[in-house]
Every structure is written in structure tokens, then in C-alpha cells.
Amino acid sequence: MPRFDFRLRGYLNLKSRMEDQRRLEYGKAVSDLERERAELRTLEDRWDETLAAFKAVINKSVQPQSAIWYNSFLSRLKESIEIQIGNVRKAEEEMDRRRAALAQAMKERKMLEILKEKQYAAYVRERNRAEQRSADELVSFRRGSREN
């Protein structure tokens, strides 16, 4: 009996490579999200430090120029934080899209692997039946030759 040959092997290999590619894309999306979150934390820390410094200056003698400078800087920093929050949201959405694409690729590959396993099990059953038929024929042939 010929050896087992999964006819969709090339397609399964393609799906496996696609899954690997989706896994790499997902990993990049996760690292991009972490980078954006780190940038947001940096901006928020800068906000807290600047606000603390501004409060310290207010408790001492306040010069109008320095209050204007702090106010302007805090305003620009707040805008940067809002923009960065938008960047984090976009990165989260991209990561979710990449995760869904990876999950779909994994399902497709798994489906093909299950089909391969089922076809291999059918092949093994057929091979065992063929071996059993051969053994039965051999036993029948031996019995027939003894009786004659």
C-alpha cells in the first residue's frame, strides 16, 4: 500500500507560514502599543513634575512671567497628552485587529491539521484492513492446501 500523502500539504504549509507572519505582526503591534503607553507615562510624569514645580513656585514669590511660562508649558503638555492618548487608542485597535487576524490564521491551520489527522486515521484503518485481508487470504490458502 502506498505511503500516506496529504494532498493539501502545500496549502497547510502556506497556512502555517501565514500564521507565523500574523504572529510576527501581532508581536510588533504589542510592542508598538507598549511604546505608546510608555510615551504616555513619560508625558504624564512630566505633567506631574511640572505641576509640582509650579505649585512650589506659587507658594513662594510669584513672578508673572514665570506663571505665564508654566501655564503655557502645562497647556502644551496637556495637548501632547491628549494626542498621545489618541495614539494609544489607535495602537490598541491595531493590536486587536492583529490579534483577530492571528486567531483566524490559527483556526484555519488547525482546521487543516484536523483534516490531515482524520485522513491519516482513515489511511491507517484502510491499511490495517488490507493487511487483515492479506492475512486472511494467506490463512485460507494454507487451509485449502492442507485439505487437498
Annotated CATH architecture: Orthogonal Bundle
Distance between the termini: 32 Å
Question: How does the helix and strand content classify structurally?
Answer: mainly alpha
CATH topology: Helix Hairpins
Name of the CATH class: Mainly Alpha
H/I helix tally:
2
Uncertain regions: pLDDT < 50 for 5+ in a row?
none
Q: Helix-strand pattern, N to C?
A: HH
What value does the average pLDDT take?
92
Query: Tally of extended strands?
Result: 0
Number of domains: 1
Oligomer: single chain
Shape: rod-shaped
Measured on Cα atoms, how large is the radius of gyration?
34 Å
State the major sheet: none
Task: Note down, in words, how this protein is organized.
By secondary structure, the protein is mainly alpha-helical. The chain has a single domain, classed as Helix Hairpins. The protein has two helices and no strands. The longest helix has 84 residues, at 64-147. It is rod-shaped and about 125 Å long. The mean pLDDT is 92.
Q: What's the arrangement of secondary structure elements?
A:
Blueprint: H1 9-59, H2 64-147
How would you briefly describe this protein structure?
This protein has 148 residues and is mainly α. The chain has helices spanning 9-59, 64-147. The protein has one domain (9-147): Helix Hairpins.
